[in-house]
Amino acid sequence: MDVDVGAESQLLLNQCVYSSSFDWVAMKLYNFFRSGTSHRLRIALNLKGLTTDYVAVDLRKEAHLTDAFKAIHPQGFVPALDTGEQVLIQSPAILEWLEEKYPTPALLPPGADARAHVRAMAAMVGCDIHPINNRRILMYLRQQFGANEDAIQAWCTTWITDGFNAYEALLAADKHRGAFSYGDAPSLADVYLVPQVESARRFNIDVTQWPLIAAVDAACLQLDAFKQAAPMQQPDAA
Ligand SMILES: N[C@@H](CCC(=O)N[C@@H](CS)C(=O)NCC(=O)O)C(=O)O
User: Fold this and answer.
1) How far is residue 129's CA from residue 134's CA, in Å, rounded to a whole number?
2) Deepest of 37, 113, 116, 149, by most Cβ within 10 A of its Cβ?
3) Does the predicted model carry a pTM greater than 0.70?
4) What rounded mean pLDDT belongs to the chain?
């Protein structure tokens, strides 16, 4: 029999299940405060009421490129999640793992059609915006093609604008939408969107040109799960 334990109790329950299944060994999140992909995971973990030990990997000091870190993540990327049983890599895979392991509260809506829609929104950010504005890509543009900071700014502005224009159009077309990217509750789409909005602001892009995205971002930032995941709230924030 399914018992509706309520949202608050479910978060506590997740914490208990997690604690007992890992014999009180805390999960470790290898991450960096300003990393968008790490930010995604922090939001999802908070939404699901899960706490982890914070292991800072300083991208500014290229700590992710050391042999020691590559033994954890062979690609030399943050984030990685050490569950106590295995090390998970790649934020989309880790988010899907969290959703399967801790299904409540759900980050995906019921129904294959709705799930495809939410996953598509997440992929717009995760596959098409974030990867081409990543640190290593920008370094390559600087070092191999002599891009100066104006060129880097133009590059990032172009690809963020292109992706956000499409995301805004999807939001506008969804007449049943509530305050979030999909429906009335935060979903996987918001987990991807909010860190990308944060990154756009860091590149001095005026996000008010996308009023629906700005409104979704504002709605998310009312919630503790999003507030506490913000880059400047992290222990390694400079
Ligand atoms: N597809 C990977 C990408 C991870 C990723 O790009 N991480 C960035 C930080 S947001 C990173 O570690 N970049 C290192 C670099 O570019 O040198 C994931 O989603 O986990």
Assistant:
1) 9
2) 37
3) yes
4) 93
The pairing of strands 87-89 and 80-82 is antiparallel
Instruction: Give the 3-state secondary structure of residue 230.
Output: coil
Q: How far apart are CA 54 and CA 51, in angstroms?
A: 9
Ligand 1 atom nearest residue 78's Cα: 12
Span 141-195, pLDDT tens digits:
999 999 999 999 999 999 999 999 999 999 999 998 999 999 999 999 999 999 9
Q: What are phi and psi of 188, to 5 degrees?
A: -55, -35
Go through the domains of the chain in sequence order and give each one's CATH number. Answer: 7-105 (3.40.30.10), 112-227 (1.20.1050.10)
Substitution site in 95, 134, 191 for ligand 1 pocket (most atoms within 8 Å of beta carbon) = 134
The vertex-62 CA angle with 137 and 146, nearest 5°, equals 35
Rounded Cα distance between 11 and 4, Å, is: 12
